[in-house]
Amino acid sequence: MGMPAELEQSTARPAQPVRRRLLRNAALVALALCVIVGAAGSVVLASQAHPAVPARILNPDPDGLAQQGNVPSYPTIAPVQATPAVCPCGTPAQAKVPLPSGGVPNIGGQVVLVSLSQQWLWAFSNRQLVFATPVTTGRPELPTPTGIFDIYQKVQNTMFYSPWPPGSPFYYSPEHVNYAMLFLTGGFYLHDAPWRSDFGPGSNVPHTGPGGQAETGSHGCVEMPTSAGAWLYAWAPYGTTVDIVA
After folding, report:
1. Number of domains present in the structure of the chain
2. In this structure, which long-range contacts are made by residues 119-125, counting pairs with CB atoms below 8 Å and at least 24 apart in sequence?
3. Residues 182 and 155: beta-carbon distance below 8 Å
């Protein structure tokens, strides 16, 4: 039996507001989901805004082969005109510390800056110079990579072993290291070099040391006197920025 037209219409009408309410609620739920997803994406992007980007690795030193990567640029400003610090490492005594030719990195917190052209290392705390030392970086055949890194491993009283076999021009006998701070996969460290007699400008290329011995640069690490290595090891925690520039 058919339903009267009047009753059929009166029965069908209430379904429309219910349907509209359901559609409106679904739209509100979808909008809320969009907001939540967008906020989560913003958090992820913010956490990735300033990663430590590995540089292009050219050679291993001292314990393995390194991986390829991109060389990022680094932000700088005009050099600060602070009173030069006195290097406490004694090579030479009371040495005047040069200002970094590229300026102080525009990076807050604790930052280690290394200049390959100047063969110097500076330590900054919130862009204020707190320490400096001459260093020796990679020889021409095995240059130290440039880029912005983080210290992510620290080791004391360890041995370095050559990844090159005896007979290789890059082979070296096992060496004892007091303070080592890894900043890049593949064995790239900031470390002291007790066997080295000369640091600073010219020490990364073939030269004659103070004692008449033939010396050249490292295998890619940033080497420094033991007293400087001890100071830096105690001062630089995990996550300290290492900015290596040409």
Report:
1. 2
2. 119/199, 119/200, 119/201, 119/202, 119/203, 119/204, 120/200, 121/190, 121/222, 121/224, 121/228, 121/232, 122/97, 123/232, 123/235, 123/236
3. yes
Residue 90 covered by a domain: no
* Of 94, 75, 92, the residue nearest 84 (C-alpha): 94
pLDDT tens-digit readout, 60-69: 334 432 332 3
Pick the closest to residue 181 from 100, 246, 241, 97 (CA basis): 241
Return the CATH number at 203.
2.40.440.10
Strand partners, 20: none
- In angstroms, rounded to a whole number, what is the distance separating the alpha carbons of residues 144 and 61? 9
- Around Cβ 175, how many Cβ atoms within 10 Å? 16
**Domain-located, residue 143:** yes
Backbone angles phi, psi at 65, to 5 degrees: -85, 140
pLDDT tens-digit map of 205-229: 999 888 888 999 999 999 999 999 9
Look at residue 118 and tell me whether its pLDDT is greater than 80. Answer: yes
**CB neighbours of 213 closer than 8 A, spacing ≥ 6?**
197
Question: Do 120 and 236 belong to one domain?
Answer: yes
Distances (CA, A) of 85 to 82, 96, 128, 178: 8, 7, 11, 25
Nearest-CA neighbor of 231 among 79, 149, 110, 74? 110
Token pair for 62: 């001292």
